[in-house]
Structures are given as C-alpha cells and as structure tokens.
Amino acid sequence: MESPDGFADTRTRWYHGLYAGLAGGALSLAIFWLAGAFWVRDIPLDVWARLVASTVLGTRESLPSGMFVAIGIGLHFVAAAICGIAYAAIARRVPVLATTPVSAFSGLVYGALVWYALANGIVPATGTANIIPLWEGLLASIVGFGFVISEIVTVLRPREPAT
Fold it and tell me: CA separation (Å) from 137 to 57, 95, 104, 111, 142?
C-alpha cells in the first residue's frame, strides 16, 4: 500500500492488533486451561468462564451452564481483541513499539499493564472475586498476552520494500 507521496505505508493497522489480540487471547486461555488441568488448583476453566460471563450477565439461573461458559469465553476474546487493537493504535503513534527488539520489552510492559488494570480496576469494579492465582494471572497476561500481541503486531507490520 502506498501513501500519497509515493512511499510505502509501513504504519501499523487496527486489524494487525485484532489478529494479535485474538492470538494472545487464545494463548492466555490455553494457559488458564493448562493451569487448571495439570496443576493442582480448585478453579477449572469452566468456573473461570462462568465468572467472566457473570460480570456482564449477573447470576441468571435461567441460562444453562454451557451457555455461561460460551459467553464467558466469548467475552474473553472480545476483550483480547480490544486490547490488541489498542496496542496497534499505540504502535501506530509510536512506531518503535512495532520494531524488534523494542517490541519484546514493550509487549512485556503492556501485558503487565493489562494485568494491573484487570486485577486492580476492572475486576473490583465489576464486583467479582479475583479467583486467579497471582502467578497464573501474571504469566497469562505478560507472556501469553502482552508479549504475543507485540510480536504479532511487529511481524504483521508492513515493511519498506527492498531496493
């Protein structure tokens, strides 16, 4: 894609963030699932997904349990996509965030900021209990989410053509 002045447009696009957010959401969900399946823990993935759904739906006994799980996982991916698009928007304004090796560090910082916002802002504001252990939330947010988003946005960002 070319800009009006004839040079290649190498800016980050919103859909780069969308793809990155969905991939980061999938990996962080896999971390939650693996932690519940293979580590001794009392919080299986379906309980976590029902808790996520209850932040929006409340406790509606009329919905089947499977529907709550599906809505919770869907909300997780919507939030992940929004966070990915937000990172792409920031990287569009600050292009160094989408170049290596800065992108790796910025992704780790972004994941830590997302975890902090969730643990200290969003979860308490919705009135739900934070049932995720600290190490699991940090691992899923920093490595499985922030780092993945930054690296996928960096890989998808258009490059200058070779001369």
Answer: 23, 28, 19, 10, 8
